[in-house]
Amino acid sequence: MEGLKIIIIGAGIGGLTAGIALQQAGYQVQVYERVQELRPVGAGISLWSNGVKVLNCLGLGEAIANIGGRMNVMEYRTAQGELLNHIPLQPLIAQVGQRPYPVARRDLQEMLLTGYGGEIKLGHDCIGVEEDEGGVTAIFANGERDRGDLVVAADGIRSVLRPYVTGKPSALNYAGYVNWNGLVPVSPELAPADCWVIYVGQHQRASLMPVGGDRFYFFFDVPLPAGTPPEPEQYQEQLRGYFQGWAQPVQNLIERLDPQQVARPEIHDLSPLDSYVRGRVALLGDAAHTTCPDLGQGGCQAIEDAWVLTHYLKSTNLSVMDALERYNRERRERGNSIVRKARKRAEQIHGKDPEVTRQWYEQLGREAPQSVTNAIADVILGGPLH
Ligand code: FAD
Fold first, then answer.
1. How far is CA 266 from the centre of its chain?
2. How far is CA 141 from CA 28, 68, 150, 160, 263, in A?
3. What is the per-residue pLDDT across 124-158, written as a single tens digit (0 to 9) for each?
4. What is the C-alpha to C-alpha distance for residues 224 and 351, in angstroms, rounded to an integer?
5. Predicted confidence (pLDDT) at residue 40 exceeds the cutoff of 90
6. Residues in domain FAD-binding (predicted)?
7. What's the CATH class of domain 5-172+268-380?
8. CA 86 to each of CA 4, 89, 341, 363, 370: distance values in angstroms, whole numbers, following the listed order
């Protein structure tokens, strides 16, 4: 189809990637964003090869390689630091045809903003949509309206447009744990500069992953009841308590982090949706499939969504609704399967059934490295660009 006007709600990873892809396809794109100033939430993100392949196709291959960390090895260690598994990543890279890139979120956002280059109307809080025979109108809290051929709802985990698409309110599911994340300078007292290390024990994790600019993206996971207050001035003391007796690099990390720069989300996901599309409105990214971060795939799925949506709009010419339905069929299957898989993984890691987690710790010690990389490759190769 040609000559479409496309309205995108939300300028996160999903909305910006969709903006780039749809603009490159020749469409007129307008992005609206609720906040007055764009700031990424969270410190880092691992972009697995399925997401990177889409960025390559959008002409961002060099840019992502420039901001990405060189991660050559993955290591699992016990809480006390004993090596459980040393997993070279070259076989994975060879299998899937592309290196993954862990990145700082701020760098990723800047890269996507530069790649998009179009106007983003900030301070525009979308409160609803109205469809008519020939188009759809996005309605904003400030009284503005904009009519186009379709609306891409890339408005994130608490999507305002999701209930319009699904016909019912959606409840987020608390995954049972809290995640602290941030950035620290690379140092051998933390981990080797090309290594993604994950310490596991007591249903908790502490992890460091290299991103560009000689920094590690780090995170800590601790199962806690929902609603515990975030108090930056207490983060280090709390982490010292939760990770008491853990290996020296974990203690070093706690001492070196800057609590004022640490994000601390309680982790939620969303049960799989029956549909990502209604009429001329398509959910994209977390709006469609908020997933536990335990596979590192939420952002990658948003990027895949953007690619597939653009593909169907470009390659078919029956109607907008028909193209969106094709998008729906393909992405619903992929997105929902990632949500289920990530939830299962989150439960395994964080002790929903302590016996399952104990078995996982045991398995980590005897699993062939190739079987770990095969499992990651399966997820990657399930994407639209094999
Ligand atoms: P968002 O990034 O949430 O963007 C939505 C945008 O819409 C926001 O800018 C918001 O302000 C705007 N908005 C919301 N409502 C409105 C409205 N009504 N009107 C206008 N604008 C609106 N993914 C990975 O691929 N790899 C990882 O390693 C990874 N790690 C993660 C670690 C953690 C701790 C967490 C929490 C998530 C992780 N993810 C990871 C997931 C990833 O962060 C998300 O999947 C991704 O950010 C989703 O992008 P999005 O564009 O759909 O939503």
1. 15
2. 23, 38, 19, 12, 28
3. 999 999 999 999 999 999 999 999 999 999 999 99
4. 11
5. no
6. 5-341
7. alpha beta
8. 50, 10, 24, 13, 10
| Domain coordinates in residue numbering, the chain | 5-172+268-380
Residue 57, Cα to own-chain centre: how many angstroms?
Answer: 19
Q: Which of 184, 219, 213 is CA-nearest to residue 350?
A: 219
> What's the CA-to-centroid distance between 157 and ligand 1, angstroms?
7
Determine the atom of ligand 1 nearest the C-alpha atom of 298. 45
Give the pLDDT score at 39: 86
- Average pLDDT in the 93-113 region? 97
ipTM here: 0.99
Token pair, residue 349, equals 């890691």
- Rounded CA-CA distance 97/50 in Å is 10
Q: Are 184 and 190 in contact (CB under 8 A)?
A: yes
- Give me ligand 1 centre to Cα 88, in Å: 30
Taking the C-alpha atoms of residue 141 and residue 127, their distance in angstroms, rounded to an integer, is 6
Among protein residues, the one whose CA lies closest to atom 31 of ligand 1: 293
Query: Which ligand 1 atom sits closest to the C-alpha of 290?
Result: 45
Overall average pLDDT of the 19-48 stretch: 95
Q: Which residues line ligand 1 (CB under 6 A)?
A: 9-15, 32-35, 42, 45-46, 124-126, 154-157, 160, 179, 181, 265, 285-287, 293, 296-300, 302
Nearest 5°: phi and psi at 82?
-70, 135
Pocket test for ligand 1, best of 16, 34, 266 (most atoms within 8 A of CB): 34
Q: pLDDT (tens digit, 9 = 90+) per residue, 330-383?
A: 999 999 999 999 999 999 999 999 999 999 999 999 999 999 999 999 999 999
| SS3 state of residue 57 | helix
Q: How far apart are CA 85 and CA 268, in angstroms?
A: 29
pLDDT digits (tens, 9 = 90+) for 15-32: 999 999 999 999 999 999
Ligand 1, residue 14: give the atom nearest the CA: 51
Contact 379, 324 (CB under 8 A): no
If one residue of 33, 284, 341 were mutated to test the ligand 1 pocket, choosing by the most ligand atoms within 8 A of its CB, it would be 33
The residue behind tokens 């596991």 is: 200
